[in-house]
Amino acid sequence: MTAEEPLAPGPSPGQGMLAALLREGRPNTSLVDHIVEDVAMQIILAKLPPGADLNSVDLARRYGSSRTPVREALLTLEREGLVEIPARRRPRVALVTLEQVRDIYQVRASLHGLVSELIVREAKDESLAVLAERQEELRADAERGDVDAYFWHNVAFRQAEAEITGNRQLIRTLGSLGLRTLQLRHLSLSFPGRLKRSLDDHDRLMMAYADRDTALAVAITKSIINAGFRAIETSGWF
Predict the structure, then answer these.
(1) Where a domain ends, among 93, 125, 141?
(2) Number of domains in the chain
(3) pLDDT of res. 2
(4) pTM of the complete model beyond 0.85
C-alpha cells in the first residue's frame, strides 16, 4: 500500500460492528483504535489482499501521525491474525493456507453446532423472532446482491444466536477466533451463487428452530459453515 494508493475513506456498513468486536465495550478514544479498525476493514473486505505490503511510513502519512501509533496498530492486527510482521521486513497482510482455513472452519462448525443445540433447547419465542428479523435483513441483501451488507448482517445473525444461548463462555470462545474468521467468511460469500445458497440454508435453519428440532438445526448449521469452507476450497483462491 502506498501514499498514491490510499485506503478507501469513510465508514462502511460494518464499521460499528467491527469496532464493537475489537474494543469489547471500550470507547474509541485513540488514533490507534481508528487505524486498527480502518486497516482491518480493508483486509476483511479484501481491499488489501493477503501478502499486500503495509508500509508504516505511508500509513503514518495517511493518518497524519507518527509511526508509533501505526506500529501499535499493526501489532494489534498481528495478534488478531490479519497481519504478519517478519523480522527485518515490511509488515504485510497475513498469508493463509488451506490447512489453516480447514482448521478454523472445523472449530467454527462445532461451536456453532452447540449454539444451535442450545437455541432449540432454551430459546423463547421472542428470541426466535429476533432471529427472524435478522433473516429478513439477509433476504433483502440477497435480493439486491449486496455481498458486503449480507456479510455484516450474517455476522449480526450469528452474534444474536450466541447471545440467545446465554452461555458467556461459549460467546467468549467464539470471539476468541478473531478477525481472521471475518476475512474468510466475507471471502466465502463473495463467490457467484453463494448468497442465494446461504439464504436458503438460513431459511431451513429457521424452520428447524421453529420446529424445535435439535438434530436438524445442528446439522443445518454445520452444513452452512462447511459449505463456506467448500466454496473457498474449490474457488482456486489458493
Answers:
(1) 93
(2) 2
(3) 41
(4) yes
